[in-house]
Amino acid sequence: MIFRIKTYNNINEAGLEAFPRGLYEVGSSIESEDAVLVRSARLHEQPLSPNLKAVARAGAGVNNIPVDRLSEQGIPVFNAPGANANAVKELVIAGLFMGFRNIAPALEFVERIEGEGESFEKAVEAGKKRFVGRELPGRRLGVVGLGAIGGQVANAARSLGMEVIGYDPGLTVEHAWRLASDVRQARSLDELLGESDVVSLHVPLMDKTRDLINERRIAVMRPGAVLLNFARDGLVDREAVIASVESEHLGGYVTDFPHPDLLKRERVVALPHLGASTGEAEANSAVMAVQNLRDFLENGNIRHSVNFPDVVMPRTDGGRLAVANANVPNMVGQVGTALAEAGLNIVDLLNRSQGELAYTLVDVDGEVPETVAAAIEAIDGVLKARSIAPVSARG
Ligand SMILES: NC(=O)c1ccc[n+]([C@@H]2O[C@H](COP(=O)([O-])OP(=O)(O)OC[C@H]3O[C@@H](n4cnc5c(N)ncnc54)[C@H](O)[C@@H]3O)[C@@H](O)[C@H]2O)c1
Ligand SMILES: O=C(O)CC[C@@H](O)C(=O)O
Q1: What's the gap in Å between 57 CA and the centre of ligand 2?
Q2: Complex-level ipTM
């Protein structure tokens, strides 16, 4: 079997090379694709191939992918958690300095100086007083979202002498372990906003986080506070942010998401979505996304999916059935019965659920015929059932 992968955006070569020739066809013009590999391209309006089995995001955010629609069809969406976190952290720290040292307007001022020799130097010295900045030690950074990126930003800010306060009601144990021990926990977003000299956003864009920073919350922020948004445009009410910067309540807005309304404004810096744009981050993200995709397509294993639980089972000698289904009673029972009726002996089985979805891997002696997989897919509540050939039968 040849797997067909449709790519959107520029996918790093290291990732593309991780697809073995002979087993995969990969490209932007592939049709009837088994899987999609994407960066930031918006897939919500794209038609989905009837063969589609998985979508992989070579990056962190999945707001460009119709995750709910794919979940209803039993299609996992993978991402590459942490693969670009260092790159984003570095740009956020650059943003921190830009916000506190007036670097962008200062550069623009220098570009516009005319004359040369003594008159040039005089203009430099006369103009620089407009760009007097503030130092970081002793100031407080509030980090909203302490996941892969927020955690690294918090730790880097600590090493720059800042105090750090964080807010993340869904903080994982793994991410908590990586945090500097003196990062203080805020009990609410408002507490963090009211106590921070600079606030950095590192949460995903979802219905719940859209316009997280709105007029009311900006009013809670300290006068002169700087807002850093390297996460997603939709997390802030842009008009409210602009009004607050104009009225000088907010001391600055530094973002990775430009918009015409943000341009040519004092104390606003907009970069062209550069957070993950380093060779290292692009390679890490593409390789991790391709590894996730390959293990799913070739073995049915699920790792780093945003809509399915991790389900990983070592291969046995025989074939495998991979079933995505609604998380309701008696699904595994019905799958087992269908396999028994087809005369197939179960060698190993793993079932996990997450929210409304469940996923089951069943290894059998021999191979699961396509007709049996199709009959299982027709069971009420089964969203997808796929027969996976034994490893020895792979071309
Ligand atoms: N600028 C860029 O190029 C770039 C690159 C990578 C990621 N991002 C953005 O950054 C986001 C975070 O990336 P990550 O890798 O750190 O993801 P992550 O999943 O590791 O961390 C996100 C954290 O946000 C927390 N969270 C969710 N909702 C929250 C809320 N309402 N309040 C507080 N915390 C909340 C989660 O519990 C989680 O710990 C991505 O979703 C993406 O939108 C931007
Ligand atoms: O692919 C990119 O350049 C941006 C990725 C970034 O926004 C992410 O969410 O990982």
Answers
A1: 9
A2: 0.99
pTM, 2 dp = 0.96
Q: Is the CB of 15 under 6 A from ligand 2?
A: no
Task: Provide CB contacts within 8 A for 192, sequence distance 6+.
Answer: 142, 144, 165, 166, 167, 186, 199
State pLDDT tens for residues 171-198: 999 999 999 999 999 999 999 999 999 9
| Complete domains list, the chain, with CATH | 1-82+279-307 (3.40.50.720), 85-270 (3.40.50.720), 309-390 (3.30.70.260)
* Contacts with 7 (C-beta within 8 Å, 6 or more apart), sequence order: 16, 26, 27, 28, 30, 36, 37, 38
| Ligand 2 contact via 63 beta carbon (within 6 Å) | no
User: 21 CA to middle of ligand 1, Å?
Assistant: 35
Burial classification of residue 382, based on how many CB atoms lie within 10 Å of its CB (0-12 exposed, 13-18 middle, 19 or more buried): buried
Across the chain, the runs of DSSP E, i.e. the strands, are: 3-7, 24-27, 35-38, 54-57, 77-78, 140-144, 163-167, 184-185, 198-201, 226-229, 252-255, 268-270, 320-326, 346-354, 357-364, 382-388
Of ligand 2's atoms, which has the minimum distance to the CA of residue 256?
7
**CA pair distance 242, 255, nearest whole angstrom:** 12
